[in-house]
């Protein structure tokens, strides 16, 4: 594929469409988590609902596995897979608002079967995006991969803004009642609009994202923004030796060849990872996702809910906003230095340790104090934002490696997340380590 004369002319229309495409990756899953403060009030699983959702999401990793198997046996255009997945997302988002509170008797008790089936469809889109959507963007100039990753971060910000408008109503209160045997009942003020309206809006947005991808894939004008790559079957691509991302025209005279080679060598010395660092960053990514996508989402309810629905609502919303904030920070202050990535990972672990400690205590420290609520919300927000920054930095480093590096790092993300979710689900549902805190405990004591 020859270098087009418009190769370095950035198309902002494509930026907008790519960001919408990025939003679609985790929009539906993030929207589900943002409704958890309301869902746990209705679901038969109560606080353990988050662990069920997380394990369901990780079971959906069968999607990336099947995709890779199919591509190995009989390679198919990745755009076909993407269109199929986004169709599943559209259908699921429409049905969510009607069946989220439907329970069925299964495995000995009432369970949110319909909700979990729909979430599984959402997760197929999100999980497979790491090995399908992101590698698909690898054929474009690097700036568009960053735009996609920012859009992926916005998949948390956009529904968060909607959740802010929705509100949570207020904290659950314990009120005296003559109609119950216990002598008290639970009362939770309603939000400004319910879950059904929330997901109706989200489904409309996802349809727009689907249309955006079709434009990206079908319009010939956007193919001019491809990097100088050989695109093979599926998501495999190889950068050509004369790929030039610095705006040097292919018709440069020989007098500039020496400086071009020097610049290229310099770039490669910075961007190319050693074999040790390549493996190390893959392991680090797996460990990070073990906690951030597996353990902590499952235990967040136990960590924050004892502080009240309002604190829980703000912790989830601000954490979702912190995710794209970390992406924007990485956009303006990128870090591909392995040592700096390691230092940031260790620093972020401090907030993770505090969050884990609070989830293990029932009730946690200062649960009835405003300061305690502020601390826990800030802790979860910083933890999410910093880890988002680290993950994007690692992804940006792997983009420069070419080949199937983005597929490898995406697979590490999913493996770490899957193992973490299994560990969390097992501990939460089959041990007494994590305990439900009854807001009426003090009422009964009095």
Automatic annotation (TrEMBL):
Residues 243-262 are annotated as: Disordered. Keywords: Cell membrane, Membrane, Transmembrane, Transmembrane helix, Transport. The chain crosses the membrane at residues 12-29, 49-67, 79-100, 112-133, 145-165, 195-216, 278-296, 311-333, 340-362, 374-394, 406-428. The keyword Membrane applies. It holds the Pfam family SLC52_ribofla_tr. InterPro entries: MFS_trans_sf, Riboflavin_transptr. The keyword Transmembrane applies. Belongs to the riboflavin transporter family. PANTHER family: RIBOFLAVIN TRANSPORTER (PTHR12929:SF10), SOLUTE CARRIER FAMILY 52 (PTHR12929). This is Riboflavin transporter.
């Amino acid at each position: 594929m020859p270098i087009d004369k418009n190769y370095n002319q950035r198309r902002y229309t494509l930026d907008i469409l790519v960001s919408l495409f990025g939003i679609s990756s985790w929009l539906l899953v993030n929207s589900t988590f943002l409704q958890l403060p309301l869902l746990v009030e209705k679901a038969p699983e109560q606080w353990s609902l988050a662990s069920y959702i997380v394990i369901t999401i990780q079971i959906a990793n069968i999607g990336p596995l099947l995709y890779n198997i199919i591509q190995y046996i009989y390679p198919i255009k990745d755009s076909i897979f993407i269109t199929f997945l986004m169709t599943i997302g559209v259908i699921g988002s429409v049905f969510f608002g009607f069946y989220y509170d439907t329970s069925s008797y299964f495995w000995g008790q009432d369970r949110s079967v319909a909700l979990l089936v729909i979430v599984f469809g959402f997760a197929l889109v999100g999980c497979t995006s790491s090995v399908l959507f992101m590698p698909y963007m690898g054929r474009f100039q690097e700036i568009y991969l960053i735009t996609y990753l920012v859009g992926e971060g916005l998949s948390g910000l956009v529904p968060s803004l909607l959740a802010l408008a929705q509100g949570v109503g207020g904290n659950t209160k314990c009120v005296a009642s003559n109609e119950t045997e216990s002598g008290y009942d639970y009362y939770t003020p309603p939000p400004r609009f319910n879950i059904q309206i929330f997901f109706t809006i989200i489904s409309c947005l996802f349809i727009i994202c689907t249309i955006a991808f079709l434009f990206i894939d079908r319009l010939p004008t956007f193919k001019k923004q491809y990097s100088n790559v050989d695109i093979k079957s599926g998501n495999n691509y190889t950068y050509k030796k004369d790929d030039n991302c610095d705006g040097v025209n292919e018709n440069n005279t020989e007098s500039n060849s020496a400086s071009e080679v020097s610049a290229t060598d310099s770039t490669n010395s910075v961007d190319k990872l050693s074999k040790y660092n390549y493996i190390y960053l893959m392991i680090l990514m797996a460990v990070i996702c073990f906690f951030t996508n597996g353990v902590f989402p499952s235990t967040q309810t136990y960590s924050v809910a004892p502080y009240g629905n309002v604190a829980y609502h703000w912790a989830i919303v601000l954490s979702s906003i912190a995710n794209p904030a970390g992406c924007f920070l990485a956009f303006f202050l990128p870090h591909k230095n392995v040592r700096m990535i390691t230092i940031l990972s260790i620093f972020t672990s401090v907030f993770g340790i505090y969050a884990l400690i609070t989830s293990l205590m029932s009730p946690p420290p200062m649960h009835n104090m405003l300061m305690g609520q502020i601390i826990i919300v800030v802790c979860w927000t910083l933890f999410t934002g910093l880890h988002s920054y680290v993950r994007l930095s690692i992804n940006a480093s792997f983009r420069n490696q070419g080949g199937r590096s983005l597929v490898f790092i995406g697979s590490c993300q999913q493996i770490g997340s899957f193992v973490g979710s299994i560990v969390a689900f097992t501990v939460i549902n089959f041990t007494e380590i994590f305990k439900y805190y009854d807001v009426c405990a003090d009422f009964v004591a009095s």
